[in-house]
Design a protein that fits this description.
The chain has about 675 residues and is of the alpha/beta class. The protein has three domains: about 140 residues, no CATH class; about 120 residues, 3-Layer(aba) Sandwich (Rossmann fold), CATH 3.40.50; about 350 residues, NAD(P)-binding Rossmann-like Domain (Rossmann fold, 3-Layer(aba) Sandwich), CATH 3.40.50.720. It is built from 22 helices and 22 strands. A nine-stranded mixed sheet has the order 10-9-8-11-12-13-18-22-21, with helices on both faces. Strand 12, helix 16 and strand 13 form a beta-alpha-beta unit. It starts with a helix and ends with a helix.
């Protein structure tokens, strides 16, 4: 390195940074302002005539002011007044200047009075006021100049004309961020708020034009192209109604995600999110007391069947978060199961996780799993759930859903399981399809098991699909295995799950992305909806509330039209229904009905500690007769009988297949199978 380069490098090191230059200028200004403010206070006190100022006051001022100014600058330095970025000066900086100036003024009063003489009261008062104003002037003048410049600079031809719904703190934060975001070309043109006290008033030059009833008219009047919802604390019903109104416009709709943004003071354009489908449900999310769930699961061995599915995988996540002794993930489909296994291992490295592949239809496999791991809690989510596919393969619905539940429940009972929670569905209520009927059979199975156990007759529950010498429960023939049965069996019934595998939402989204058409079965079809997390919280809460035999039911609010849901999804994608994306009605599929129920008319409702969770009182039925019918139904399913629907109707009295789902087979000839011989060959 030559001598010239070294000189240049040293000169760069000695050069002051911009902020250092600003600090030096502020210090010089403060020294001048401190001198000048108290001189002006003295001058004003004596009618703004210098010759009238008594010499004793003037000498006291001159003797004290320089030392005071130097000391005040040191005080300002210690209070951080020279470390702020004044380009963004706001309320906190104003408080900082006020605090520093007040402290300095108090010192001025005390010291000049003690060291020199008592000055006129107006000198102290006006000196403090002028001092504070002098300190604020350079610090906030730059911000004011920028603000004034922005006011004139904001283009009238802004590409985005914004309506903010919510004229509270969130809305004001959002307005400030939009005004200061240089990268945006948006302009807030109006506020909407249901508080009539704000109507006709202004927030930063932007009018509050009315309530939700004025949204459509205001969009047209102010040529609004974007609507931002700043109402995170609004009730779900109110938010749904407002979103539905906004969806009648062609505007882009976004929202502030949650109250935590306001608490952190981070409400901004960058934090805005798209309106989610969950916001359209119009009810508050379920908030279960997870502390009870923690106490229930903590330190126990938990088995989740169907753990690779939508509900099962979320169950595994929630269970893993509550520190079980061991979590057993069981599913027949290895691909999804492997993905869930990797996720859980990464998120919970200390979790004792066992991942098993197998079918609940295989009684030998279920006995093997329960015998080796001895799970204390079972969440039974394994099932075939697709209604039209099960209509085409009705025997498979009975084999997997009903008989698979029976096998799993029996294995749980004889291996000391404490709680067995069945995942059921609202389609089990007055079913019109074989999938719903099979899930009603599952509910009847767990009710039968619970009744027999409470009567002390667990040994009367037949062990179907047994393989002698492999998984026979009473191997020694003494019946001891049935004497201390304490398993509690319950079912949890809920509606359609948003975002689950095979649900309508992902299908609609894929159709919208492809440009349509979006297929809706019927313009009047309605369904209850809930989120996956809500469903899982209900299932886990049911496990803590259960005493055996209950069917837990969620109050899911009002059902939603699928047609309305499809149209809202199209609008949320920034498109127009029937214009940009066409909607087609394909007709009800086999086994479908226009509406779903959550409770049968014969069932009563009983409240729980959670106001959104109820218990449906069990419908009485002959347990012994049912168990005998189930054995025959099992054989018919494994024989693939074509009349399986009519057989199920005899067992489930509320099952009435609709015309679309009751596909009639003209040639109903069946092969007769020896039941005793067949039993050893099936699982």
């Amino acid at each position: 390195m030559d001598h010239g380069t070294q000189i240049k490098k040293n000169s760069r090191k000695k050069r002051l940074e911009h902020w250092q230059v600003v600090v030096i200028c502020l210090i010089l200004w403060d020294l001048l302002a401190l001198h000048l403010s108290y001189f002006l206070a003295l001058w004003v006190r004596f009618d703004c005539i210098y010759s009238r100022i008594p010499m004793e006051y003037l000498n006291a001022y001159l003797s004290f002011i320089t030392a005071y100014a130097a000391g005040a600058v040191i005080l300002f330095w210690l209070t951080g007044m020279y470390r702020s970025v004044w380009r963004y000066a706001s309320y906190p900086e104003l408080i900082k200047v006020f605090t520093g100036s007040t402290m300095a003024s108090l010192l001025h009063i005390i010291l000049i009075t003690i060291l020199f003489r008592r000055m006129p009261l107006s000198y102290y008062l006006w000196g403090a006021i002028l001092q504070f104003m002098g300190l604020c002037l350079p610090r906030f003048s730059y911000r004011l100049v920028l603000f004034a410049g922005n006011s004139f600079q904001r283009p009238q031809e802004a590409t985005g004309r914004v309506m903010i719904i919510g004229a509270g703190e969130n809305g004001q934060m959002l307005l400030r961020d939009i005004n200061h975001a240089k990268e945006l070309n948006d302009k807030v043109v109006c506020f909407i708020d249901d508080n009539s006290n704000k109507w006709g008033r202004y927030i930063g030059r932007v009018p509050v034009v009315g309530g939700r009833d004025d949204i459509l008219a205001s969009v047209e009047k102010y040529c609004v192209t974007k609507i931002f919802l700043a109402i995170p604390s609004a009730r779900a019903e109110a938010k749904r109604d407002i979103i539905n109104i906004c969806n009648e416009t062609d505007c882009v709709i976004k929202q502030v995600p949650g109250l935590y943004q306001f608490a952190l003071g981070t409400v901004s354009v960058s934090s805005l999110q798209d309106i989610s489908v969950e916001d359209l449900l119009g009810r508050e999310p379920i908030r279960s007391d997870l502390s009870e769930v923690y106490g229930f699961i903590h330190g126990k061995i938990v088995l989740v069947t169907g753990g690779g599915g939508s509900i099962g995988s979320e169950l595994c996540r929630q269970v893993a978060a509550h520190q079980p002794k061991q979590l057993i993930l069981f599913d027949v489909y290895e691909n999804n199961t492997y993905e869930v296994q990797l996720e859980l291992k990464k998120q919970y490295p200390d979790l004792n996780l066992v991942t098993l592949i197998g079918s609940v239809r295989d009684s030998r496999r279920m006995f093997e799993v329960f015998d080796e791991y001895r799970p204390q809690i079972v969440y039974h989510a394994a099932a075939h759930k697709h209604v039209p596919l099960m209509e085409d393969s009705p025997c498979e619905a009975i084999k997997n859903n009903a008989i698979g539940t029976y096998k799993t429940a029996y294995a749980a009972m004889v291996h000391g399981c404490e709680r067995f929670v069945l995942i059921s569905t609202d389609k089990a209520v007055n079913p019109t399809n074989i999938m719903g009927a099979s899930k009603r059979l599952c509910e009847m199975i767990v009710q039968s098991f619970d009744q027999k156990i409470k009567e002390g007759k667990a040994d009367e529950i037949p062990q179907m699909f047994t393989h002698v010498g492999v998984e026979t429960a009473d191997k020694d023939g003494t019946g001891n295995v049935f004497r201390n049965i304490h398993t509690e069996f319950v079912a949890v019934r809920f509606g359609n799950v948003l975002g689950s595998n095979g649900s309508v939402i992902p299908i609609f989204k894929r159709q919208i992305e492809a440009g349509g058409p979006v297929t809706v079965t019927h313009p009047d079809i309605v369904r209850f909806f809930m989120t996956i997390k809500e469903a899982v919280s209900l299932v886990m809460t049911a496990g803590t509330y259960a005493h055996g035999g209950e069917i837990f039911v969620l109050d899911m609010g009002s059902p939603m039209k699928i047609d309305t849901l499809a149209r809202n999804l199209i609008r949320l994608s920034g498109l127009r229904p029937d214009i940009d994306v066409r909607i087609e009605y394909s007709g009800l599929r086999p086994g479908e009905k226009l509406y779903e129920e959550t409770l049968m008319a014969e069932e009563g409702l009983e409240k729980t500690e959670n106001e959104l969770i109820y218990i449906g009182k069990p419908i009485p039925f002959d347990t012994d007769e049912f168990l005998g019918q189930l054995d025959e139904l099992m054989m018919a399913a494994y024989s693939n009988k074509k009349d399986i629907r009519s057989r199920v109707m005899k067992v489930v009295g509320t099952y009435h297949p609709n015309q679309a789902g009751a596909t009639m087979v003209k040639d109903q000839r069946y092969v007769t199978v020896d039941k005793a011989a067949y039993r050893d060959d099936i699982t």
